[in-house]
Write a structure and sequence with these properties.
Blueprint lengths: L1 E5 L3 E3 L3 H9 L11 E11 L5 E10 L5 H7 L4 E10 L4 E8 L6 E11 L7 E11 L6 H32 L40 H8 L4 H17 L7 H10 L4 H17 L5 H4 L4 H6 L2 E6 L5 E5 L6 H8 L1 H26 L6 E6 L10 H17 L4 E9 L3 H8 L5 H4 L2 E5 L44 H12 L5 E6 L4 E7 L5 E10 L2 E8 L9 H4 L25 E2 L4 E3 L4 E7 L4 E9 L2 H5 L6 H7 L6 E11 L1 H20 L7
Helix pairs in contact: 1-3, 5-6, 6-7, 11-12, 11-15
């Protein structure tokens, strides 16, 4: 497996020429890097005007590896080739290095670049990328990979310190400025007066599509170089595949942390969550959701200041809550939506506290008071609703709970904990602190995590808490199962998106009838699983409605209730129907938007077809026999979530004009005017 690294942008508050003078001092050896034992210049080339210099070095590294591994490999040093291209006119330095030792077994490639800051010509940017591919190494591939990644991460961190050290050394020698290159100048460092900026600093202000080191430290926290790399690479992937809005950096980081910075696993659950948010319009929940009055009166939870670490504090008096009454009066979906609004508010408060306290705050603390908890809280539908809520929150809000303080746990609590704990992530369970009786009042209790001044009055503190006291929900507010079911459908399935399954040999097709030519068909879909080919066809005659009994007659159920095939196998492409857009290959995780202006009235078919090389080269549509042969293969299933709409030509021109006006307003003004 190829390991990759991408650094954030490091910005040094020093001119490019001065940073280059500091960089050159690390050769031929550097006492700050003990493993860097030697470097020899094997080739040097200078342009006639002195603006460009190319240097190739051969560097020897004494890798910190077990002696047994070195003896098996038969080497003491690992040699690298480094090529530096310095362009004094453009003020850039490009560095490329690769390993010479074991190059047939291990491939290491690194590129670095020093350049002038795009917004301040007196500052210098630094970026770094690298890849490691271990093909074989005497059966020690895993060991070598761990050693290589550990030492590379250490050298990345050391590189920043080295530049700072030599800049300080230059400053001590009175060299704080090096003249820029001119056709008649020589690039020799000359002393000058001490500048106001002393030590190198990492500063924000790089281009918007890149992350710089100071931004990461200020808003996201201390990350290792490899963790920074995972964040940057996943963010870049989202920018390339999700054409619309992508999540905030702190939200991406939560999913990486939830999967121990395994980028593939984090990407999978993040894409699933983004699809879920889009399908249920969760991004607009705080603006569109208003809690029913029964929740405002009887839901015993609310936000209450912050803990000692600056995390937002949420208090839940679970023991005083009538869970059965709330479920009977509201149903699961209303409770779920209310809990989601709490989580969305928690994300907002974390951002706010990050700005207020001047340090990264990405999670909140939850205080749960169990006084009053008894067997009525173990009502089966209530526990079922709780488990479902936990499942949804765990999947879509990972690493948002910093600490959970459970107070006054009664004897019945172990029973409830046995039911609930298997559904809670192990990392989350480690954040639980449980106090029985009044133990929370002693040493190691509540005052260790919450300032005494904000301890709620019902816990013996002096701070008034506005969390409702709860009580029993009047039975007059209960609703029948039928009423709740209808309400649940109205509340939670209120989405403009539809889901469909695509199988190998069984595409999903959507029929759109066009009456007026020059109408516009628009689409927006997300690939939740697998890869597909998206096609648009036109036919003058309507396809026959799909018949479910075709597969059922063989005793095999249809691939999925949300898989529809419209194009008859007897139809011939070019005669019965024609392709009106070039096929579009869509990869898993991608978000695709587009439109097609119709030229003729008739029937248009949007098709999502399973993607593979063999299928792409075929011209005939797959037969039902092919479908039956592949139903048992789970890897042959794709999932797509889509939305389509038809706009009249006049409506489309109006929408286009409004978007154009908005774009012009955004360009010419600091405020966007609503259309």
């Amino acid at each position: 497996m190829v390991q990759k690294y991408q650094s954030p942008v490091r910005v040094y508050k020093h001119p490019f020429e001065l940073v280059m003078a500091a960089y050159e001092r690390r050769f031929p050896t550097c006492h700050l890097i003990p493993m860097f034992v030697a470097s020899d210049v094997v080739d040097e080339e200078n342009s006639e005007d002195g603006s460009t210099q190319k240097i190739e070095r051969r560097c020897a590294l004494d890798v910190d590896a077990p002696r047994l591994l070195k003896r098996i490999a038969g080497v003491d040093y690992v040699y690298f080739s480094q090529k530096n291209t310095l362009n004094r006119k453009e003020r850039t330095l490009h560095i490329e290095s690769h390993n010479e030792t074991f190059s047939n077994r291990v491939i290491i490639h690194e590129t670095c670049c020093y350049s002038v800051h795009p917004e301040n010509e007196d500052w210098t940017c630094f970026e770094q990328t690298a890849s490691l591919d271990i093909k074989s190494f005497f059966g020690f591939e895993s060991t070598v990979e761990k050693i290589a990644m550990k030492q590379y991460a250490s050298s990345i961190k050391k590189g920043k310190e080295i530049i700072e050290f030599y800049l300080k050394e230059l400053e001590d020698e009175g060299i704080t400025q090096v003249p820029r290159w001119t056709p008649s100048s020589l690039p020799l460092p000359l002393p000058s007066a001490l500048q106001a900026d002393s030590l190198t600093d990492i500063l924000a202000g790089t281009p918007e599509d890149k992350l710089d080191a100071d931004y990461i430290k200020r808003y996201l926290g201390d990350l290792t170089p490899l963790q920074e790399s995972c964040l940057i690479r996943l963010r870049k992937w989202l920018q390339e595949t999700h054409k619309g809005k992508i999540p905030k950096d702190e939200h991406i980081l939560r999913f990486l942390r939830a999967r121990d910075f395994n980028m593939d696993k984090a990407r999978e659950i993040l894409c699933q969550s983004l699809t879920w948010r889009k399908q249920h319009q969760v991004d607009y929940l705080l603006e569109t959701w208003t809690s029913p009055q029964v929740l405002q009166d009887y839901y015993t939870g609310g936000w209450h200041h912050h803990d000692r670490d600056g995390r937002p504090l949420y208090i839940l008096r679970l023991g005083q809550m009538d869970t059965k009454g709330l479920v009977r009066a509201l149903g699961e979906e209303s409770l779920l939506r209310h809990v989601l609004s709490i989580n969305e508010e928690g994300l907002r408060r974390c951002e706010e506290n990050t700005k207020v306290f001047g340090r990264p705050i990405s999670c909140w603390t939850c205080l749960v008071d169990l006084e009053g908890l008894n067997m009525r809280h173990l009502w089966r539908p209530g526990v079922k609703a709780l488990l479902r809520i936990i499942e949804v929150v765990e999947a879509n809000y990972p690493e948002t709970l910093g600490r959970l303080l459970i107070l006054r746990a009664p004897r019945v609590f172990p029973v409830l904990w046995t039911l609930v704990s298997p559904f809670i992530d192990e990392n989350t369970r480690k954040k639980f602190l449980i106090y029985a009786g009044n133990d929370y009042q002693g040493p190691g209790g509540l005052v260790d995590y919450i300032d005494k001044e904000i301890i709620p009055d019902f816990l013996g503190g002096e701070c008034m808490c506005e969390v409702p006291e709860g009580g029993l929900v009047p039975k007059s507010m209960y609703r029948t199962a039928e009423e709740l079911e209808n309400e649940d459908v109205r509340l939670w399935t209120e989405t403009i998106y539809q889901s469909a399954s695509v199988f190998k040999g069984a595409p999903h097709e959507v029929l759109i009838e066009i009456i007026d030519a020059s109408s516009v068909i628009t689409w927006d879909f997300d690939m939740c699983k697998g890869d597909v080919v998206f096609n648009i066809y036109h036919s003058k005659r309507a396809p026959q409605p799909p018949r479910k009994e075709a597969l059922g007659a063989h005793g095999i159920t249809s691939p999925g209730g949300n898989n529809v095939q419209l194009i008859d196998k007897s139809w011939t492409l070019g005669q019965d129907y024609s392709m009106v857009e070039s096929p579009l290959t869509c990869k898993e995780g991608e978000s695709v938007q587009g439109s097609h202006i119709t030229r003729w009235p008739g029937f248009y078919i949007l098709q999502w077809k399973f993607y593979n090389m063999a299928a792409c080269s075929a011209t005939n549509l797959p037969r039902v026999d092919d479908v039956l042969a592949t139903l048992q293969v789970s890897s042959h299933k794709c999932k797509v979530m889509y939305y389509t709409e038809v706009l009249g030509s006049e409506d489309f021109r109006l929408v286009t004009f409004c978007l154009f006006v908005c774009l012009c307003a955004c360009v010419t003004s600091t405020h966007c005017h609503p259309c």
